[in-house]
Description:
Layout: H1 3-17, H2 25-45, H3 48-72, E1 107-110, E2 113-116, E3 122-127, E4 132-136, E5 139-143, E6 150-152, E7 161-164, E8 167-172, E9 177-182, E10 187-193, E11 198-204, E12 207-212, E13 217-222, E14 228-233, E15 242-249, E16 252-258, E17 262-267, E18 272-278, E19 287-290, E20 293-297, E21 304-309, E22 314-320, E23 329-331, E24 334-339, E25 342-347, E26 352-359, E27 366-372, E28 375-380, E29 384-389
Parallel strand pairs: 1-26
Antiparallel strand pairs: 2-29, 3-4, 4-5, 5-6, 7-8, 8-9, 9-10, 11-12, 12-13, 13-14, 15-16, 16-17, 17-18, 19-20, 20-21, 21-22, 23-24, 24-25, 25-26, 27-28, 28-29
Helix pairs in contact: 1-2, 2-3
Amino acid sequence: xxxxxxxxxxxxxxxxxxxxxxxxxxxxxxxxxxxxxxxxxxxxxxxxxxxxxxxxxxxxxxxxxxxxxxxxxxxxxxxxxxxxxxxxxxxxxxxxxxxxxxxxxxxxxxxxxxxxxxxxxxxxxxxxxxxxxxxxxxxxxxxxxxxxxxxxxxxxxxxxxxxxxxxxxxxxxxxxxxxxxxxxxxxxxxxxxxxxxxxxxxxxxxxxxxxxxxxxxxxxxxxxxxxxxxxxxxxxxxxxxxxxxxxxxxxxxxxxxxxxxxxxxxxxxxxxxxxxxxxxxxxxxxxxxxxxxxxxxxxxxxxxxxxxxxxxxxxxxxxxxxxxxxxxxxxxxxxxxxxxxxxxxxxxxxxxxxxxxxxxxxxxxxxxxxxxxxxxxxxxxxxxxxxxxxxxxxxx
Length: 396
């Protein structure tokens, strides 16, 4: 018997004794048959070197058969008394999207009047007896509420603003000054210099309260003289953020501290911090006050409105209103938050969005807002102001 025959027989015996699956028998027979054919043909026509290469290829084919068989071999789990089945794979958790805060909420579409007062940010707005005032990055402007004609008053970039019936107060963030303007003459005077980047303003009784964004403090000015009466320093975590939104009423002075998620209450009788309310969002925008509720905007930092109970100084709710938002205005006891090209109303009893007013065009990024002359006035990041009449809002 030749060496080739011995090799063939040994290969067949080895494959027969191996554990390769029977499903590969047809492949094995085909390859072994090919080996025999090549062996017979190569005896007369192949040189020795060619036959060696042929045998190398055939052995590689045999190895491939075994690899295929092993890859298909899968041991079956043991089944029977005393044998526990293998545990099932842990199912992957179901990923669900956050609920739509506007699902099922009635939507009213309106076409407001648009007034362009600048080509830059138009943030805080206020009203005096005969005008609507806007603090913009390109200066102070006023609007005639009847003709809707804007008038540029001065060119100094303005950030915060608050107004009484006969006085307008504005801040110069970079210049560190607080100025007072007379609406009768449109003339202004710098009345105070502050070192902590004065931002938002609030007026109550005979005081003007100034949030110093990077000064970790609030300054109290005398509304008549403009003199600094007191400086209230923030302590602890309150000093780690930025003083931005501010509002004042008989119950106290409320300050939003972005970056640390805090709302601080100041007692005007003592000029001391009376309470610190923690939130999980960023209270950086305007603040609206009611006897039984404090509403804080998260401006461009987040998409929540903050509801605080001033009777207990406790956080009541953080309401998802779908995006960045400006300070709320109060109409018939309901807070309306500017949000994009919408006004979003929250029901104080349920802390849910219950009405939406949408206005065109959609490319309108709301900023601050104010209420006056039977309308809501909403500033934007591109220098326009939208006027929405109160009677266009849905009834309570």
